[in-house]
Specification:
The chain is an alpha+beta fold. It folds into 2 domains: 3-263, Beta-galactosidase, Chain A, domain 5 (Distorted Sandwich), CATH 2.70.98.10; 265-665, Glycosyltransferase, CATH 1.50.10.10. It has 17 helices and 29 strands. It has an 8-stranded antiparallel sheet with strand order 6-7-8-9-16-13-12-11, covered by helices on one side. A hairpin with a 6-residue loop joins strand 19 and strand 20. The longest helix is centred in the middle third of the chain and has 21 residues, at 405-425. The radius of gyration is 26 Å and the shape is elongated. It starts with a helix and ends in an 8-residue tail after the last helix.
Length: 673
């Protein structure tokens, strides 16, 4: 998104109670890109690039197409959307739209550094294809130039070079100043510009307008992103020509999509429930390093949020842990995913044993953030749960997978440093000291942070490390376990959101449900006592009851009581998919813990099944593509990052757990279609 498109969105969002102006939303439409590019296709076929969070190239700001008849263009955005879907077990998107008896089928697929858009027109004389493509090389919308080669157009700034070619060849092309089909231009205006002495009009600017013929009603448009420091222009041109020749038919794009999915996504027979759709989303959000962004970046200017196109170590490590759970239970063959995550965490740990607030996914360098106290020399504005979450995953990675001896040695060193940092953040009373919370909007001493510390210490105690490390971790786990009693609010029957100025704040908070997984981890080393089990049941039931929100359109859980973030004109908290999925998973895990202690967990399990149905296909919080947006307004409008990776990972692990429960006790998993 650039300034111009942000202004256009602000104008379109005016007076809309569920839209925030200046954002680049993906709450409708689908994404393609399992190899490093991330391209969004709207229900009318409009293209937008979200790749800059996953690679150091920005690519397309927007790509639009239409039918040209004697210079008059009818944009496809004016057609009526018919259907949009993923085809098979791939990331190939098929979008159909029609107008006055003309039906257009658009097929989109991102392959390596290229994006392919195949268009097939039925029901009328096709005429010519007109394309309007705006690029942002090096993230720039100004000071951009164009080169018109024999078979393609190149848009460039300094190091990034973006190319566009057409399988049937380009009949005419040129740069235009107004990136819209409704610019008042017939043709490309080249002759008029030359007559006026404006030779620069066709070679300066970020927008390319092109006309290309259909062949038997079909054509493929190819865009390619390159870096001049890595790829010679001649090599890029050859690669682009190869794509244009190779993918000149729909059939070849289908073959490429199936081959791509076969190397990235698991066998559908081994992916229970929503497995394939969840893994597809997590693949879309993954950089080549294996690190995942939180979600597609919709707010480049931080106008209404702090941005989403970055890797948070809490979110990413939690996702990695849920993927490990699902893999161990269903044999998804995700070993390469786990190894990449572990390698990324090893490479990004700071010398003091911490991980920073958030980083760029493609190289691990520090990204803009607001919780970097450990770098700044401070204490409070630091999210200690991020370090604990990474330590938890790496400890499990050592114990539950088969890393090479070198990887195991390096991971052990990372864990030892991480343990020292956790110890340094632990106060004398056995609870973590004051820091930022999981939602990144408060400071204090949080139950969620304590839960992540208990989990990390418990997993370290079981890891294949030296006795000195495991004994130390075991002792710390017991210390935190005992200290959690200080967070209990007897009157309300819940664990406190936080200790603030030494006072327990008993507001309900979905993040405190992490206490369930923490006690499961602790139970494996020391055993959870009966009073703690009673309190966990009370805490879970009270939290779910108190945070449940229901309207005519949706049902789910809020983040915490009094949450007023991005509520717009709505009264009361919004529903969040991560809160709802988290509660579902916590209920299923607590049922397991109760069963293991000879108690009946069936009612709790049923509650988890019901919550999971809300975020499963057909549920009110699941949109097209089986995507989970971050939030919903009461009227059912999705909001914020879409799809959000974290709830997809929770949903996957929860469906796997339900499938295992069905085999063990005869429960019925949530329907997934």
């Amino acid at each position: 998104m650039n300034h111009r498109t942000a202004l256009a969105d602000a104008e379109a969002s005016e007076d809309d109670p569920t839209r925030f102006p200046g954002e680049r939303r993906s709450t409708a439409g689908l994404f393609t890109g399992l190899d490093g590019r991330l391209v969004h296709v709207s229900p009318t076929g409009r293209l937008r690039e979200y790749s800059d969070a996953l690679r150091p190239q920005s690519g397309l700001v927007v790509g639009e197409f239409g039918l040209s008849d004697d210079g008059e263009v009818t944009p496809f955005s004016a057609f009526e959307p018919v259907e949009q879907r993923y085809v098979g077990e791939t990331a190939r998107i098929e979008t159909r739209y029609r107008s006055d008896g003309t039906t257009v089928t658009q097929t989109d697929l991102a392959v390596d550094d290229a994006h392919l858009t195949h268009l097939s027109v039925d029901g009328t004389e096709a005429g010519s294809l007109c394309g309007l493509l705006t690029f942002a090389p090096d993230g720039e919308s100004g000071r951009v130039g164009q080169l018109v080669h024999e078979e393609c157009v190149e848009v460039y700034h300094r190091t990034e070079r973006d190319f566009v070619a057409v399988s049937t060849g380009i009949e005419e092309c040129g740069g235009v100043r107004a990136p819209t089909f409704a610019s008042g231009q017939r043709g490309l205006g080249t002759e008029a510009s030359l007559e006026a002495g404006r030779h620069e009009d066709g070679r300066l600017g970020d927008t390319v307008r092109l006309v290309a013929p259909f062949e038997e009603g079909e054509v493929t448009v190819v865009t390619l992103l390159t870096d001049s420091e890595e790829t010679e222009r001649s090599d890029a041109l050859a690669t682009l020509a190869g794509y244009a020749d190779r993918f000149d038919s729909h059939e070849r794009i289908v073959e490429a999509a199936e081959a791509q999915a076969g190397t990235v996504l698991p066998d559908p027979e081994t992916a229970p429930g929503t497995g394939l759709s969840d893994l597809r989303v997590l693949s879309l959000l993954s950089a080549p390093t294996g690190a995942r962004i939180a979600g597609p970046e919709f707010d480049h200017f931080y106008a209404h949020s702090g941005g989403y196109g970055y890797t948070w170590f809490r979110d990413d490590a939690e996702i990695a842990g849920f993927l490990l759970d699902a893999d161990l239970a269903s044999e998804l063959d995700l070993s390469a995913w786990h190894a990449k995550s572990a390698a990324f965490y090893r490479e990004t740990q700071r010398s003091d044993g911490t991980w920073p607030h958030r980083v760029w996914s493609f190289d691990g360098s520090l990204a803009p953030g607001w919780a970097n106290a450990r770098i700044e020399g401070g204490e409070i504005e630091y999210q200690a749960d991020q370090t604990a979450s990474v330590v938890t995953f790496l400890a499990r990675y050592l114990r539950e997978t088969t890393p090479t001896p070198e990887e195991a040695l390096e991971t052990g060193d990372v864990l030892t440093r991480g343990l020292s940092e956790l110890d340094g953040s632990l106060a004398e009373d056995g609870l973590p000291g004051a820091c930022q919370n999981a939602w990144e909007n408060m400071t204090g001493r949080f139950s969620h942070t304590a839960a992540t510390f208990l989990t990390a210490y418990s997993e370290l105690a079981r890891a294949p490390l030296s006795g000195e490390v495991t004994d130390r971790a075991d002792a710390r786990a017991e210390r935190v376990y005992d200290a959690i009693d200080d967070l209990w609010c007897e009157e309300r029957g819940v664990y406190a959101l936080r200790l603030h100025d030494s006072e327990r704040e008993d507001r309900l908070d979905a993040s405190t449900l992490a206490l369930v997984s923490a006690h499961l981890a602790y139970d494996a080393i020391s055993g959870v006592d009966d009073e703690r089990l009673d309190r966990l049941v009370s805490h879970l039931e009270t939290t779910i009851d108190g945070l449940s929100r229901e309207s005519e359109a949706i049902s789910g859980l809020a983040r915490f009581e009094g949450d007023d973030w991005r509520v717009g004109e709505q009264e009361g908290e919004k529903v969040w998919t991560v809160s709802t999925a988290w509660a579902a998973h916590a209920a299923l895990r607590l049922a397991d813990l109760l069963d293991s202690h000879g108690r009946d967990g069936e009612l709790i399990r049923d509650r988890g099944v019901g919550l999971l149905s809300l975020v499963s296909p057909g549920g009110p919080l699941c949109v097209e593509g089986e995507y989970l947006p971050e939030q919903f307004f009461d009227d059912g409008s999705p909001d914020s990052a879409t799809p959000l990776g974290w709830p997809h990972a929770i949903r996957l692990a929860s469906h796997v757990r339900l499938a295992n429960d069905e085999e063990r006790v005869g429960t019925t998993p949530v329907p997934t279609d």
